[in-house]
Amino acid sequence: MKFHYPELLHGGDYNPEQWMEQKETIWKQDMQYAREAGINTLSIGIFSWAYLEPEDGVYDFSWMDEVMDNLAANGIKAVLATPSGARPAWLAKKYPSVLRMTAQRLPNVFGGRHNACYSSPDYERKVTEINTRLAERYKDHPALMMWHVSNEYNNECHCPRCQERFRDWCKARYGTIENLNRCWWNSFWSHKYTTFDEIISPSPLGEEENVAHLLAWKRFCTDNLVRFFKTEIAPLRRITPNVPVTANLMGTFPGLDYFALGKEMDISSWDNYPAWTGDERDLAVARNSSFRHDLMRGVCDQKPYLMMESSPSSVNWNTINPLRKPGTVLYQGLQAIAHGSDSVQYFQFRAGRGGSEQYHGAVIDRTGTNRTRTFREVAEVGAVLKQLKAVAGSETRNQIALLYDWNVRWSVEGAWMLHRHHEQYEETVRSFHIGLSSLGYGVDMVDETCDISRYKVLVAPMAYMMREGFGQKLRAFVAGGGTLITTYVTGYVNQELLTYMDADPSPMNELTGMHVDECDALDDRTFGHFVWNGKKYRVKEIAELATPTTAQTLAVYADRFYATQPCFTVNEYGKGRCYYIAARTDADFLYDALGWMLKEAGLEPILSRLPEGTCATERYQEDGTRFLFVQNGTHERKIVPLPKTMKDAVTGKKVYEQLEMGELSVAVLTDE
Ligand code: GAL
User: Fold this and answer.
1) Edge-to-edge order in the sheet of strand 306-309
2) 672 is catalytic
């Protein structure tokens, strides 16, 4: 189901149950302030379980009816949450199985949130019951727009039921215990299992090092969560088949494979909390956010997504929580829209008087008024989003895919190899994202399960582990004319983390036209060099030694005992080609080499000659209407050359061939 709303959404998490005793004044004021701030959506019920079901089986929807009616009367749509992110005390007391067990096998006690056991039959039943009632109650309510399922699903439980499920999962995946022993290489340290009953989850008290066992557990945790998610949404799908379902994700959160979860959602959404500093460090923060926005769009097949949460002011959970410079909230919001979000939403609409988040930024902060800088800035975002109404529902049409795969990440991070815990998978993928964006290209993030056939170029850095069928997919992609750009530490192991060898070669060898023989790890005082295209570049941290078979060498190492061995190659394969960057370099090489390789592939950037710290993205409506976004992530003014005169979509003014941008700003342009 494709979500479509004719406006960009502006709103945030709204917790009216915290103000039940003052509802005559506060709830009324909430609606007035929401209208003033140009808010057209509020997310409700996220942490309302104790108020919706005050006792087991006793429900009270009267207050929620009132809230929903208030929203409808004020033209505000509800992103209605299922309350499973936190549970009432009575529920934990009566059904202790809902509480998690730690990896040390200690049962949790009541408190906190985001800590339910996803294998608890009691939890499943209670969640199903309350979700069914919510859906029945509000299925025809005019305010209902979307389901917000739970809150920031995360992490793992090691209770006996989860152990049982893990064993069943292993049986289903490996079939026989002999096969599991083979895949996990359990002849090592005499870890051979006799029956599936002997298998337990990893723990600091036990198994912490068997890479295949650890990966299996992570895969299981995602599968178990996806199963729980499907149960949780079953009543919503049945009773409200036309209401889209989302779950708010957390960017590059390490614990779950979001691509797997994304396949079950109608629209992806995520909570974006960049740590803006107000100085030159913000460029790195902005680039990191851009990367995460693209990734979060990717998990639901590049469709428009939502920025479900962001702070309208400071957060309260970092060590130091500085205020945002004026204009940062608008920049943060438009940056989301630039990457394909159809919303700017905040945590939170109104700050509570108590609780751990009383000092967290809010549209209505602890003063309880609209006379704050934050409120004025939020209202300005609301006004700008209204001007940009035509952007709603538009999609990206990028020709470059960049691979980021949670299974690969876990495999690289778990491996005992070059730099223990410093392989830097995420940083490496991000460095390519920065290179591509700085060159003016738009990027789609994909994982190994995604369809890559629609792209011209696939950039796959450190694709260490090849899932079943991925080698085949890459071969078809390149043979059909695609350009594959890959790097060191790619195609080392199969999906079970068993190394490829001569008798069972890496699918990469054929594509790269060479085989990797050795890999050097350089410490932070040791550097290598190479010269390409007349320019000298630095090698750091990782340097592979490879022997070409059919590959053509583009550059060779200049020093150490492997001087003259190739460090940058290209191999023609079918109608396409595969580039291989065998060493980790600084950003200058990525920028220069990516620019050259993409030109060779016949790809033009969205904008060329972009000044340092700026980037460009595009969104298209079905009728071909194009929106061009230019971001300036620096605290300096920038002049961005445009190929032609365009129109500013916010002010309606013409922008001649030079776009003048203030610090931390986003320009939205349309063709005249
Ligand atoms: C999010 C969470 C919200 C709120 C916010 C504070 O991760 O979903 O409920 O706690 O952080 O920044």
Assistant:
1) 248-249, 269-271, 306-309
2) no
Q: Atom of ligand 1 at shortest distance to CA of 47?
A: 9
pLDDT digits (tens, 9 = 90+) for 520-554: 999 989 999 999 999 999 999 999 999 999 999 99
- For the entire predicted model, the pTM comes to 0.98
| 273, two tokens | 């909390």
pLDDT category at 199 given cuts 50, 70, 90 is: very high
- Reference 667, options 348, 407, 338, 411; nearest CA is 338
User: Per residue in 51-82, pLDDT tens?
Assistant: 999 999 999 999 999 999 999 999 999 999 99
pLDDT at 420: 66
For residue 168, what are its two tokens?
A: 């069943």
> Is 208 noted as a catalytic residue in this protein?
no
Ligand 1 pocket residue status of 193, Cβ below 6 Å: no
CA atoms lying within 13 Å on the CB side of residue 98: 23
* Whole-angstrom distance, CA of residue 548 vs CA of residue 343: 49
Rg over CA atoms, the chain:
26
Largest CA distance in the chain: 78
Continuous segment of H or E residues that includes residue 43:
strand 41-44
Q: How many CA atoms lie within 13 A of 658 on its CB side?
A: 5
- Strand-strand pairing, 566-573 and 552-556: antiparallel
> Distance from the CA of 216 to the center of ligand 1, in angstroms?
29
Q: Are the C-beta atoms of residues 204 and 238 closer than 8 Å to each other?
A: no
Token pair of 18 as six digits = 């915290």
Q: CA 55 to CA 101: how far, in whole Å?
A: 25
